[in-house]
Write a structure and sequence with these properties.
Elements (H helix, E strand, L loop, with lengths): L13 H24 L6 H8 L3 H7 L3 H6 L4 H10 L6 H19 L1 H13 L1 H26 L6 H23 L6 H14 L7
Helix pairs in contact: 1-2, 2-3, 5-6, 5-8, 6-10, 7-8, 7-9, 8-9, 9-10
Length: 206
C-alpha cells in the first residue's frame, strides 16, 4: 500500500479548513507566549487574545494548556507510513523509517516547536505527565497497526509490551535530547534507542 500524498487526499471543506486554521493559531500563540514569558506565566486568556479567539474556543479545541503543548499532527502520518511498509521488512527497519519520516516532517515544519516541546517535557511536570498520557494513546494506535502486520491480537501481552517499550524509549530520547541542549541529531538518538530495543544493552563498559 502506498502512502497517500497531500495531492491524493480529498480537498477539505471550508468548515474543516477553519478548524485547522484555528488550531494552528492557538498553538502558535501558545508557543510564542511561552518563549517570551515562560510556561507558568502563560494563561489561557493570553493565548486566546493572541490567537484572536475566545477562551471558550481555546478550551473547545484543547481541554488544558498542557494539551496545546503536547498535541501534534503526526500520529496519522506515523500510522499511514507504518501500514505502507513492505510485509517482509523487519520491525526495526519499519520503525526506523516511520520515526525518521515523522521527525523529518516535524523538524522541517516546526523545528523550534519540536525543541521547545521536548524542553517543556523535562522542565514542567504537568507537561511531562500529559506527554505520558498522550504516548499511551499513541501506543494503543501503534498496537493496532502492528496487529495488522503481525496477525496478533492488538491487546496481546506481547504487542502491549513491544508498543509501550517503543513509546517509553521515544520519551527518553526526547528527555535526553532536551537535557543535553539539543546538541545531537534527534533522528540519530532515535536510531540508538531502537538499537537498544532490538539488541539489548551491550556487555561491558561503553
Amino acid at each position: 500500500m502506498a502512502s497517500v500524498t497531500p495531492a491524493e487526499q480529498p480537498p477539505l471543506g471550508l468548515r474543516e479548513r477553519k478548524k485547522i486554521k484555528t488550531r494552528k493559531a492557538i498553538r502558535a500563540a501558545t508557543y510564542e507566549l511561552i518563549e517570551q514569558q515562560g510556561y507558568d506565566a502563560t494563561t489561557i486568556e493570553q493565548i486566546a487574545d493572541r490567537a484572536e479567539v475566545s477562551p471558550s474556543t481555546v478550551f473547545r479545541y484543547f481541554p488544558t494548556k498542557e494539551d496545546i503543548v503536547v498535541t501534534d499532527e503526526w500520529d496519522p502520518v506515523i500510522l499511514a507510513e507504518l501500514r505502507a511498509r513492505p510485509d517482509d521488512e523487519s520491525w526495526a527497519d519499519v520503525l526506523r523509517h516511520v520515526m525518521r519520516t515523522a521527525l523529518d516532517l516535524s523538524l522541517a515544519e516546526e523545528p523550534e516547536v519540536t525543541r521547545l516541546r521536548s524542553r517543556l517535557g523535562v522542565e514542567v511536570p504537568a507537561v511531562r505527565a500529559r506527554m505520558m498520557e498522550s504516548m499511551a494513546t499513541t501506543g494503543r494506535l501503534l498496537r493496532e497497526a502492528l496487529a495488522e502486520r503481525s496477525g496478533r491480537a492488538p491487546d496481546s501481552l506481547e504487542l502491549r509490551v513491544f508498543a509501550m517499550s517503543v513509546m517509553g524509549g521515544l520519551m527518553e530520547v526526547s528527555h535526553y535530547w532536551a537535557e543535553t541542549g539539543h546538541r545531537d541529531d534527534v533522528r540519530d538518538l532515535v536510531d540508538r534507542a531502537l538499537d537498544v530495543l532490538e539488541h539489548g544493552l551491550a556487555t561491558g563498559k561503553p
